[in-house]
Amino acid sequence: MEKRRLFGFIGTGNMGEALISGMLKAKFVNPNQILAFDIDQKRLQSIIKNYRIKKAKDNLQISMICNPIILCVKPQSMKGVIEEISESLDTSKLIISIAAGVPLYAIEAYARKQLRLVRVMPNIAVTVRQGATAIAPGNLANDDDIKLVKSIFECVGRTITVDESLMDGVTGLSGSGPAYIFLIIEALIDAGVYLGMSRDQASILAVQTMLGSIQLILESGEHPTLLREKVTSPGGTTAVGLYKLEEAGLRKAIISAVLAATQRAKELGERMKQ
Ligand SMILES: NC(=O)c1ccc[n+]([C@@H]2O[C@H](COP(=O)([O-])OP(=O)(O)OC[C@H]3O[C@@H](n4cnc5c(N)ncnc54)[C@H](OP(=O)(O)O)[C@@H]3O)[C@@H](O)[C@H]2O)c1
Predict the structure, then answer these.
(1) List of domains in the chain
(2) Strands 131-137 and 94-97, how do they pair?
(3) pLDDT under 50 in the chain at which residues?
């Protein structure tokens, strides 16, 4: 457990709540080690009540007394928030931003100073503590800062550390990834329904097949290619199914989807410069 620090959350929406909840469930912190603020007072009040954390009077109070400060507002709110708290920011504090597509240089530009920053890209699965999170440290973040950020996000899933230049790719792969997986599961369900199963029956089979396959990869430690070869008998049903998927270009479609989403993330990031 992290005993010394007071963690400050600016924004307690979906992601802010997921992090607060995950850190408490993992017993990484006590409720009295979290101070939070959100302009949506109703939302803030309910988070304070549910998790018994401390309520800040405004963002400035958080930036003055917390370290680290975790920014969980929408990208379009980032400029206003940083400008509001910039007078209290200096390199003695670690600032963690989860705002998608907001580069570290933009945060320093809003603050008009150099800061100790870490940019993080989680995905929606942090809400069930199975998130895939990439961590990109800024120039002034030290090894302890990276360790701390890893510990926070490992309360809600798994993490990797990357250079910031890979963040658009992370967005294209794991940020948008859950939607790709949902689409594949939907297609499996539709196939079951086409064959005469009820939607509920097909959902159970499709979701459990996805879950079981993932569990197999994790528990066996084997590469997906090896596992796929193991379940593909010569001349069997799976070989025919796989042939149809390759013929339809599934592999290419998925790679193209990740590349296109990455490109879109780049374009949206470019707009931040204007
Ligand atoms: N959701 C995802 O899957 C995902 C994945 C990766 C990264 N992210 C990033 O995570 C961040 C948060 O996303 P979210 O889905 O949690 O958004 P959200 O649910 O809208 O939460 C943001 C919260 O911040 C509040 N807020 C707005 N301006 C504020 C201010 N000036 N001071 C304090 N609070 C303020 C909002 O209040 P109002 O609603 O009243 O504006 C809202 O309650 C975003 O930057 C997003 O890019 C999200």
Answers:
(1) 7-166 (3.40.50.720), 177-269 (1.10.3730.10)
(2) unpaired
(3) none
